[in-house]
Design a protein that fits this description.
Blueprint (H helix, E strand, L loop, with lengths): L4 E7 L4 H13 L3 E8 L12 E4 L7 H11 L4 E5 L3 E2 L4 H7 L8 E3 L4 E3 L18 E4 L10 E5 L15 H7 L5 E4 L3 E3 L11 H17 L8 H5 E7 L5 E8 L2 E5 L1
Parallel strand pairs: 1-2, 1-4, 2-3, 6-10, 7-11
Antiparallel strand pairs: 4-9, 5-11, 8-10, 12-13, 13-14
């Protein structure tokens, strides 16, 4: 099978103009084989691209289950998961695909090159994408905004637990993989306020945090200490139920429990 990407984009159609421009750019990218839109607005969507497949679920699946559904329906061996509120250069996906190697986990964009300003949504036709030297680097921690554009081979995608709805999906994919990388030099505009910032999702996000903490405790990702942290650190310690137990202060290898 030709090396192409299945692009997955969940949307609530909060800014249809931005979504349309994003799809137009993806449509011009020869590396994009299909664009799977998970329409959580349930309104239906008509986009001018033969690459687009719109999936309308029976209810708002929210973010992470939408990624899972998109991956289940993806035709190609490589994937890209994109926010519906970003703008990328026309060759963005092809460039990211060229950096995916057999041993690569999840591939994201260097935070330094993400311009996070929702006011740019009013001037998307004039956004600039300067040509810079591109560089691939390995990263050990999931950096800010990593989840707005993630790429990889299907084998690097791990089904996100269905109960984790809105947040921590990018963390889950990142920390269930090794050799995760970022590409420096590609400009991405993050154009408007995320729908997940709506207060009606606060309880869901709090539960997402608890469930993800359980996952981290079970996999020894949360309560373990690096060499530097054993010298000096102040950390929250969590139980197997995902709730905070206490704080621990480490000074030169000595641990002090703070209630």
């Amino acid at each position: 099978m030709e090396k192409k990407l299945s692009i997955i984009i969940p949307t609530l159609q909060n800014n249809l103009k931005v979504l349309e421009h994003l799809v137009q750019n993806l449509d011009k990218d020869s590396a994009v084989g299909e664009i799977i839109i998970i329409d959580n607005s349930l309104k239906g969507l008509n986009l001018q691209s033969e690459k687009v497949r719109v999936i309308i679920p029976q209810e708002n699946l929210m973010v992470n289950p939408s990624w899972n559904l998109g991956m289940e329906n993806a035709k190609f061996d490589y994937f890209g998961i994109l926010n519906d509120d970003i703008m990328v250069p026309e060759d963005f996906c092809g460039t990211m695909l060229s950096f995916i190697t057999p041993d690569c986990g999840i591939l994201g964009v260097d935070t330094k090159f993400i311009i996070n300003n929702r006011h740019n949504a009013d001037k998307i036709e004039s956004l600039k994408f300067p040509k810079r030297k591109l560089r691939l680097k390995k990263v050990k921690k999931r950096n800010l905004w990593f989840g707005i554009a993630m790429f990889g081979h299907k084998s690097s995608y791990r089904h996100i637990p269905d109960d984790i709805k809105v947040w921590y999906g990018d963390d889950y994919l990142f920390y269930t993989n090794t050799n995760n990388c970022e590409v420096s030099g590609l400009t991405v505009y993050h154009l408007h306020k995320l729908s997940s910032s709506n207060k009606k999702y606060d309880k869901i996000k709090a539960n997402d945090g608890r469930l993800f903490n359980i996952f981290k405790v079970q996999n020894n990702l949360l309560n373990n200490y690096s060499f530097a942290e054993r010298i000096f650190s102040l950390k929250n310690i969590y139980g197997t139920n995902g709730k905070k137990l206490h704080k621990t202060l480490c000074i030169c290898g000595l641990k002090f429990v703070l209630r």
